[in-house]
């Protein structure tokens, strides 16, 4: 279909995700001085759903209620094992770290788990980009007050803290912007987080964006009863092996040893806007055995 | 869903979904006869997330476990009131239908609630369209076996039936294609549904795509303990008033009388692919008080 796409369709694209409204779609030919204004920037469909819809608000409230209820149950019935996989664990040998008598904690990703990054997402959309590293870094430093708590998160964290469980953030925001990151969480009403104590950042160890090392550091002090994020890397790094195709990655989460953990200590919140979940070819997203065409006209 | 999307928006969506980011910036100038082949069709980002990602599979499993657990609890502790709003109910007077001694039922939407419509979604994507009514109608007739049960749904329905609760489908698939719709649900492993008894379709009454009338019909026989869908119209038609902007629609779901129902008899599953949740301008999706720009270079 693309080979037939018309300039008018390209103009419409200006309202989509990655194309600035004016530059790339403007025809090379001169236009009249009174040319129509470019169409307004529009949110991407995923942004409309996640940040704009009643349905996504509800999905978040449901999830946060479930997370809080689960942690309350664990606080009332202390487990022997953490929900953090032990080093070297696999689907075939899914060992978890022991808890001993350590105090309980719940560990959360920040972006699109505790907060919705509205300010920077709108700014990047207006720029006609999907992501811009320089803009994102500025956001980590200066975005406090322009990100909002995800619906249900403030009440959920209050319930978790009231149950005597420490709330800890393990995020791939940078150690370099620690002050801005803590300010962003505080301004969203989520509490005061202390770097190295209740706030763990990319750069805190040599693990890069992998979070296993930070989970192990947290586990030296705490028994972790819940891991919550919008991406599998918030649960365990093994899900992010680069060799995994989207179908293989999905199949790995359905392994019985792992599958019984979802909603039962491991929690994933919907984020169709960005991240490793937005991937896959037609063949990977639509399995061959579901191939269908409408019947012909006769 | 269709009535919420303007034709212009459909064109826009089609362009958004089918043209990879690189395409619009390619020069329009003619190229040599041996021009490169058109880029392959790609799934839209929302399709990649929902149908392709591990994260969405997990979100569905979590939701379905929560739905089944909730219904089991209700079956063990019979409620006095249904979760179907009484005629004329509002946020200020959120009355529910009485249950009497009627048998219990859970009521589900079909599309993107019980089944993922993989066959037709891929076919429509290959056509370069967001939606095509003729193709969709053919899908209702002939798609059996090419839609799949949503992860967690087969197990969830088994638990609900084992608890003695009837499973009923209330869908906007057409009465005209009743046989194909029942065959599609059966082929997906979800059970045998009987039109007029456990399967209710658009056209069964004069309510068009509104589902309140069908919910009242079901409630003449059953005490409904759960309503489950991917859109607010699966819960109550009042959420679909055409005068509601996306922010007003969202705010309505947060009214205390309604907010306590989410995850507690009313359940919404994520669907960022289509429907009334995919709407809203920049100002509607990104509230003014979250406006942010990166600081200037100096």
Could you give the topology of this structure?
2 copies of one chain form a homodimer.
Chain A: H1 7-13, H2 45-52, H3 54-76, E1 81-85, E2 96-98, E3 104-108, E4 115-116, H4 118-126, H5 133-142, E5 148-149, H6 153-162, E6 166-174, H7 178-187, E7 199-202, H8 212-219, E8 223-229, H9 246-253, H10 256-259, E9 266-268, H11 282-285
Parallel strand pairs in A: 3-6, 3-8, 6-7, 8-9
Antiparallel strand pairs in A: 1-2, 4-5
Helix pairs in contact in A: 2-3, 3-6, 5-7
Mean pLDDT of chain A: 89
Q: In percent, how much strand structure appears in the residues of chain A? A: 5-15%
Strand order of the largest sheet of chain A: 7-6-3-8-9
- Low-confidence regions of chain A: 1-33
How many DSSP helices of chain A?
Answer: 11
Element pattern of chain A in H and E: HHHEEEEHHEHEHEHEHHEH
- Biggest pleated-sheet summary of chain A: 5 strands, parallel
The computed structural class of chain A is alpha/beta
Tell me the overall shape of chain A: globular
Compute the number of strand runs of chain A.
9
Give the helix level of chain A as a range of percent.
25-40%
What's the oligomerization state? homodimer
* N/C terminus separation of chain A: 24 Å
Q: Gyration radius of chain A, to the nearest Å?
A: 22 Å
Largest interface: A-B, 103 and 99 residues
Describe this structure in words.
The structure is a homodimer of 298-residue chains. By secondary structure, chain A is an alpha/beta fold. Chain A has helices spanning 7-13, 45-52, 54-76, 118-126, 133-142, 153-162, 178-187, 212-219, 246-253, 256-259, 282-285, and strands at 81-85, 96-98, 104-108, 115-116, 148-149, 166-174, 199-202, 223-229, 266-268. The longest helix of chain A has 23 residues, at 54-76. Chain A is globular. The two termini of chain A are 24 Å apart. Chains A and B meet through α1, α2, α3, α4 and α5 of A and α1, α2, α3, α4 and α5 of B.
């Amino acid at each position: 279909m693309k080979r037939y796409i018309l300039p008018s369709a390209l103009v419409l694209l200006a309202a989509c995700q990655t194309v600035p409204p004016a530059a790339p779609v403007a025809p090379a030919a001169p236009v009249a001085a009174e040319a129509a204004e470019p169409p307004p920037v529009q949110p991407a469909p995923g942004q409309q759903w996640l940040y704009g819809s009643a349905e996504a608000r509800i999905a978040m409230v449901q999830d946060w209620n479930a997370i809080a209820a689960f942690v309350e149950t664990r606080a009332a019935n202390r487990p022997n094992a953490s929900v953090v996989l032990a080093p070297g664990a696999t689907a075939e040998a899914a060992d978890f770290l022991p808890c001993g008598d350590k105090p309980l904690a719940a560990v959360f990703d920040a972006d699109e788990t505790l907060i919705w990054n509205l300010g920077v997402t709108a700014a990047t959309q207006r720029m006609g980009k999907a992501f811009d590293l320089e803009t994102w870094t500025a956001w980590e430093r200066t975005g406090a007050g322009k990100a909002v708590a995800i619906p249900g998160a403030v009440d959920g964290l209050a319930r978790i803290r009231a149950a005597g469980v420490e709330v800890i953030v393990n995020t791939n925001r940078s150690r370099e912007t620690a002050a801005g990151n803590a300010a962003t969480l505080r301004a969203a009403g989520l509490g005061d987080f202390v770097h190295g104590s209740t706030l763990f950042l990319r750069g805190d160890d040599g693990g890069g964006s992998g979070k296993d090392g930070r989970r192990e550091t947290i586990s030296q002090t705490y028994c972790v009863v819940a891991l919550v994020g919008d991406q599998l890397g918030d649960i365990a790094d093994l899900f992010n092996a680069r060799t995994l195709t989207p179908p293989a990655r999905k199949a790995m989460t359905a392994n019985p040893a792992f599958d019984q953990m979802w909603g039962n200590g491991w929690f994933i919140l919907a984020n169709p806007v960005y991240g490793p979940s937005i991937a896959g070819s037609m063949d990977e997203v639509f399995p061959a055995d579901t191939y269908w065409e409408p019947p012909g006209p006769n």
